[in-house]
């Protein structure tokens, strides 16, 4: 045992401490500062991070006795810290926390990034955050929150942000109104003569899902159908168009999958390359239930398999911000989207079927979320056990 003395959150403290006692245990057990969360206790997860002499330190692997005379700040001691006040507001605004277990350590690291790396871009922020693990948010909100604080501080100082273009990706959509810039002016289309669908450029922080379906109709007929936006929307469960003006549409889409329920309202623009039978639908919107924001590009390319059969390759890239971002990279959700692409193809075939009456062709597509949810689960189980 030895007597240690240091400052904790502006208050001088002292007391007896065993040599092997870690700082995190000492703060929690002796001073009841339980905002310091202990997770892995191996210095890996970063949840226990506190400031020691204004630097982030893993309190679970730092001996309390080694902090003799130091100034320590835990999450309870940031009340007068201007940077932390901005970060807390940004974390709330960008939905950068969920269960909250990683948040005290995440805030300590975020504060260090803002003060030490004022010109940090997204790649740098992600690298600096690599020692702080989060099991809930998907990190997108956390990164967006830190970027917003960095951008605000650069603007306040009169400095032109070197990454202003990237920062625009984090600006919230204003409800149903979507700026034209969000929908883009040029589609990601292949150059003339290209034999394979061009893959649109990957963007940092975006997720990507690819799929395809075939329909038993000639390429020219399928291409003409895909230009009819109301008809295409009718093939997508939960989609409703409220306004159609040429290549631009407005509407909403309702989604329910397991615990996830959302109703996105927004706008989209369709751009097509008639020479190569390729198109891209660029959209943006906001969920009225969770206030989550979304943006996405749905690129598609048609390929004739025979005189009466066409393959449609789909390349979906999307970005989610807010509470629903936790689902954006889930393998289960990816399987769900691929299943929806396949079902969308079946709906297109039905809509184009000349043997059906107009009422039958135009019948609204209804989604049974329970059936689809368990169908996706069953497919994953079969793959797990190698079933064919």
Automatic annotation (TrEMBL):
Organism domain of life: Bacteria
Domain (2Fe-2S ferredoxin-type) ranges: 2-78
InterPro entries: 2Fe-2S-bd (IPR002888), 2Fe-2S-bd_dom_sf (IPR036884), 2Fe-2S_ferredoxin-like_sf (IPR036010), 2Fe-2S_ferredoxin-type (IPR001041), 2Fe2S_fd_BS (IPR006058), Beta-grasp_dom_sf (IPR012675), CO_DH_gsu (IPR010419), Diverse_Oxidoreductases (IPR051452)
Molecular function as annotated in GO: 2 iron, 2 sulfur cluster binding; anaerobic carbon-monoxide dehydrogenase activity; metal ion binding
E.C. designation(s): 1.2.7.4
Keywords, comma-separated and alphabetical: 2Fe-2S, Iron, Iron-sulfur, Metal-binding, Oxidoreductase
Pfam family, any one: COXG
Transmembrane segments: none
Entry protein name: Carbon-monoxide dehydrogenase small subunit
């Amino acid at each position: 045992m030895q007597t240690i003395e240091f400052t904790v959150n502006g208050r001088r403290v002292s007391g007896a401490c065993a040599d092997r006692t870690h700082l995190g245990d000492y703060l929690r057990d002796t001073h009841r500062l339980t905002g310091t969360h202990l997770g892995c206790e191996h210095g890996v997860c970063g949840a226990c991070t506190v400031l020691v002499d204004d630097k982030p330190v893993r309190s679970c692997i730092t001996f309390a006795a080694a902090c003799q005379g130091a100034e320590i700040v835990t999450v309870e001691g940031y009340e007068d810290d201007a940077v932390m006040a901005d970060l807390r507001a940004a974390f709330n605004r960008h939905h950068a926390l969920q269960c909250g277990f990683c948040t005290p350590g995440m805030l300590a690291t975020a504060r260090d990034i803002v003060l030490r790396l004022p010109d940090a871009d997204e790649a740098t922020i992600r690298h600096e955050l690599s020692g702080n693990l989060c099991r809930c948010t998907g990190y997108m909100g956390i990164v967006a929150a830190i970027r917003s604080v960095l951008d605000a501080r650069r603007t306040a100082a009169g400095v032109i942000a070197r990454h202003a273009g990237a920062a625009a990706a984090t600006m919230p959509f204003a409800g149903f109104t979507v700026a034209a810039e969000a929908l883009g002016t040029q589609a990601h289309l292949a150059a003339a003569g290209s034999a394979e669908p061009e893959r649109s450029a990957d963007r940092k922080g975006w997720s990507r899902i690819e799929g395809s379906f075939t329909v038993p109709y000639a390429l020219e007929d399928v291409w003409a159908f895909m230009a009819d936006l109301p008809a295409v929307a009718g093939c997508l469960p939960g989609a409703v168009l409220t306004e159609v003006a040429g290549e631009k549409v407005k509407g909403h889409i309702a989604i329910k999958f397991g615990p996830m329920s959302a109703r996105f309202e927004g706008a989209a623009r369709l751009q097509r390359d008639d020479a190569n039978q390729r198109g891209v639908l660029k959209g943006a919107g906001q969920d009225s239930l969770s206030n989550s924001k979304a943006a996405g590009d749905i690129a598609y390319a048609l390929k004739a398999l025979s005189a009466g059969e066409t393959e449609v390759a789909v390349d979906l890239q999307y970005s989610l911000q807010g509470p629903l971002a936790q689902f954006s990279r889930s393998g289960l959700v990816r399987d769900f989207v691929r299943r929806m692409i396949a079902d969308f193809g079946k709906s297109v075939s039905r809509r184009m079927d000349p043997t059906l009456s107009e009422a039958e062709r135009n019948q609204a597509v209804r989604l049974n979320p329970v059936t689809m949810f368990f169908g996706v689960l069953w497919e994953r189980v079969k793959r797990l056990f190698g079933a064919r």
